[in-house]
Automatic annotation (TrEMBL):
Name of the protein: ADP dependent glucokinase
Transmembrane segments: none
Keywords: Glycolysis, Kinase, Magnesium, Metal-binding, Transferase
Pfam families the record matches: ADP_PFK_GK
Domain of life: Eukaryota
One GO MF term attached to the UniProt entry: ADP-specific glucokinase activity
PANTHER family for the chain: ADP-DEPENDENT GLUCOKINASE
Organism: Callithrix jacchus (White-tufted-ear marmoset)
Amino acid sequence: MAASCRVVTSISDIPTGIPVHLELASMTNRELMSSIVHQVFPAVTSLGLNEQELLFLTQSASGPHSSLASWNGVPDVGMVSDILFWILKEHGRSKSRASDLTRIHFHTLVYHILATVDGHWANQLAAVAAGARVAGTQACATETIDTSRVSLRAPQEFMTSHSEAGSRIVLNPNKPIVEWHREGISFYFTPVLVCKDPIRTVGLGDAISAEGLFYSEVHSHY
């Protein structure tokens, strides 16, 4: 059966019961970002964003590590994890909060993290891997990963949190996707095979999130 599309001009136009994914874009207005966090996030099911958007978000809404002016090279995994945890704990779905937000797909050049509220999503290991794969193939404009044209630049070890006593993770090349849990939220980390000489980067974040959603299973709470 052919898929149907419906163009809407605001979230309020979307019929109830339909999961909604929001892909953030770069912005410089902190008041606008703060209003999005408090007014829009509760109305969406899933969120996609990169490292600049994540840092600006926490700065605008006074979240964890908001005093950080900029990332020093590769975004610290523990800091990223703390901010994702805070978003879902403070603005995501819970028994006491009427919010639909239960999933965040974070993507930076060398690694991706999917964070989900437990009980709402399945197949997230495959989803985060699929997003990383499309990052390598689309950037290099190839159908499959060409190992001669990509490199592994992800941190070989990292802490899962800096706000609490996190675990130290050492990447296993034979099992590169790592999963950990924190107070009802699950995290799925994957390194990315980075294209050495990228050809096609426009819309890469959208492609990563779309591929991750394609492999995701959402439970029918909506």
